Amino acid sequence: MDQGSRRADSGSRDGVYCKVLDTVKRFGLVRPGETVIVGVSGGLDSMCLLDLLWRMRDAEKLTLVVVHLHHGLRGVEADRDALLVEERAGVYGLAFEGNRVPPHHRPDGGNRQSRARDLRRACFEQAAERWQAQRIATGHHRDDHVETLIMQLFRGTGSFRGIPPVRDRRYIRPLIHVGREDLVRYAAARGIPYREDASNLETVYLRNRIRHELVPWVRGRVNPSFDRALIRFSSILKDEADLLDRLAEAAFARAAQQRDSCGGVLSLRREVLEGLDPALRRRVIRMAYVRLQGATSGLSWERVDEVCRFLGSAGVPSHRRFPLHGGVHLFLEYREVLLSNEDLWVCTPYRYPLAVGEFLPVPEARGGIASRFVPGKRIDLEKRRDRNLALLAWMPGRGDLVIRNARPGDRFRPEGLGGEKKLKDYFVDRKIPRSRRVRLPILEAGGTIAWVAGERWDERFRPAAGADSCLEVRWVVREGSADTGQHRK
């Protein structure tokens, strides 16, 4: 090799090292004294990653642990991958952990690459737990970032961020600003051995078709600097998306209200959502979904957009339900938008006998009923302003007392409204949301509705002036549940 070639190789080698070190510093990928799990497959990118981290380990005071997962899919070739990684870890004097996927867990059928990726992630996280590592380093590089951006664009996921340098505060990608061609030159200059996985050439996978067919075509026919242009465009959109996310966080804080944290129900003020720009409205819905599910994986842009367009339309029905993903339902009600892992508009019919003097739990309504007899001199009809309490003219012998939820055809005579009314019409007139209607406790005395808990007594059970005693019934709301009277006009 002549002197000029040696200088070129040295420049390439040091150039990559400086670029990776800059990425590590700029994004705070590691801190002095941390233990880093280095996921190494034996391929070009991960073998270069291992070498680069080994070179900076003393300056950054890092402890490196090399972890390799043998998927058991490529026979002797996979055995050679594992042997190469173990030998290289020995050359660097680093701890090595080799793992093998059990036969019954090996990825087969469907998207094998995706399944293998999930297995590697689980392997790395288990290793991090064993070694008490703070970081997990993977060999994703700039070309992977570009390919991911194209896949996100094609799939219309609503995300155009590609592969971030840091994910979940744990996974780090020190090579994310280095291209594959630079890594090839770096490996040659440093004498780093690596192995090629033949499956990376199979164009049956979308990523491989993008890598081997689409990207070279665009570079050759459209723009040789296509990679940089796409990354720059993504970076601009990321900055703007980050701004929108901050605005959406503030909007979420205005919209969110306590509903039933114990029951896994998240409530948003409908009027706040309706007043938001569509871009913020979509983000707030997605944030609410993340609060329940932990991530937006599987949540389609189309379904979120459908909800947002419905909220932004005039004259829409007061109630509507949208199934989202992963068992989460979104419910539009009079004043609320509810997200829950259960169907809030369905409640199994319940019916419990009420014994005066004993507390009756009503789990379906997330509360209970307390009852007692009150002597005549202590009857205070002004208490009727408390809609969670009823004073009723009832004595033993006037029929059994039962607590149940609403049934089709229910009718009663609401105190102060005059005349009989269908319970369904009363609910509509009072704008009581469906999620509350289906589980609201109703006191039935001798087959007649005497009280709708949290709402009104029946006029026929109003205590007469000078009565010797009456029945006092109180609806006790479980702590953390919604106030049963919150929907009054």
Taking the sheet with the most strands, its summary is: 6 strands, mixed
Record field, number of beta strands = 21
> CATH class of the largest domain, anyone?
Alpha Beta
CATH hierarchy: architecture of the largest domain: 3-Layer(aba) Sandwich
- Mean of all residue-level pLDDT scores: 87
Number of spatially distinct domains = 3
The CATH superfamily of the largest domain turns out to be: HUPs
| CA-based shape | elongated
Structural class: alpha+beta
Sequence-ordered SSE layout with sheet pairings:
Blueprint: H1 3-26, E1 35-39, H2 44-60, E2 63-70, H3 75-92, E3 95-100, H4 112-131, E4 135-137, H5 142-155, E5 166-167, E6 171-172, H6 180-190, H7 206-221, H8 226-255, E7 256-260, E8 265-269, H9 270-274, H10 278-293, H11 301-311, E9 320-323, E10 329-332, E11 336-340, E12 351-353, E13 360-362, E14 367-375, E15 389-392, E16 401-404, E17 411-412, E18 421-422, H12 423-429, H13 434-437, E19 442-445, E20 448-452, E21 469-477
Helix pairs in contact: 1-6, 2-6, 5-7, 5-8, 8-10, 10-11
Main attributes of the structure:
elongated, Uridine Diphospho-n-acetylenolpyruvylglucosamine Reductase, domain 3, alpha+beta, disordered C terminus, Rossmann fold, disordered N terminus, Phenylalanyl-tRNA Synthetase, Chain B, domain 3, single chain, six-stranded mixed sheet, 489 residues, 3 domains
